[in-house]
């Protein structure tokens, strides 16, 4: 039995070397929010037959790293930050998805609050640009399918988890929060119902401060109380917005 087992293993290893040759990559859908629109970070492709088409940011997974590590490496290289939200979404493995051969990709999405630091880092790279996500209708490879899949995952998780606060300043108004949900979900929310639901969740802390240097009537400022949220979650609290 042991001899047969070893022979079986050796035959499988031989078959892997001879027949199962494929590369693994990561593709990162980097969503950014700038208080007015949801954007995606993309670049110009230089690979035939997709020269000059827009594409997602990604790379092959190195032999000494996991897919998570590869995605974090891409994020650091392209955004200049290593502390952004990152979530693995889905594997895309169509046999004809890449012109150079069999490439299986693991898709991730991340969330970036677009601020001056991010803009300065990206502005130094002529190949990168932020583009409003709802204006992106085509991408190289199967990247439009990947982007749309990640967008649906983001929209679902936005309603089920407090990930939206990662795209806001630490101090924000309820109008800013509502605007974020409307932009990402691409819907119009009823102001009264939205605020009633927020109040029922009990995870916002009113700071006793108001906005400064705004052209409209300054609104009260709030902060997301992560400690209260984690405490509620342990007791079976369900976040739904």
Tell me the number of structural domains. Answer: 2
Q: So, CATH architecture of the largest domain?
A: Alpha-Beta Complex
Cα-to-Cα separation, first versus last residue? 58 Å
In terms of quaternary structure, the protein is single chain
CATH topology of the largest domain: Nucleoside Triphosphate Pyrophosphohydrolase
Strand content bin: 15-25%
By DSSP (H or I, 4+ residues per run), the number of helices equals 7
What's the main sheet like?
7 strands, mixed
**What class do helices, strands and sheet pairing give?**
alpha+beta
Report Rg. Answer: 22 Å
Order of helices and strands: HEEEEHEEHEHHHEEH
Q: Report the helical percentage.
A: 25-40%
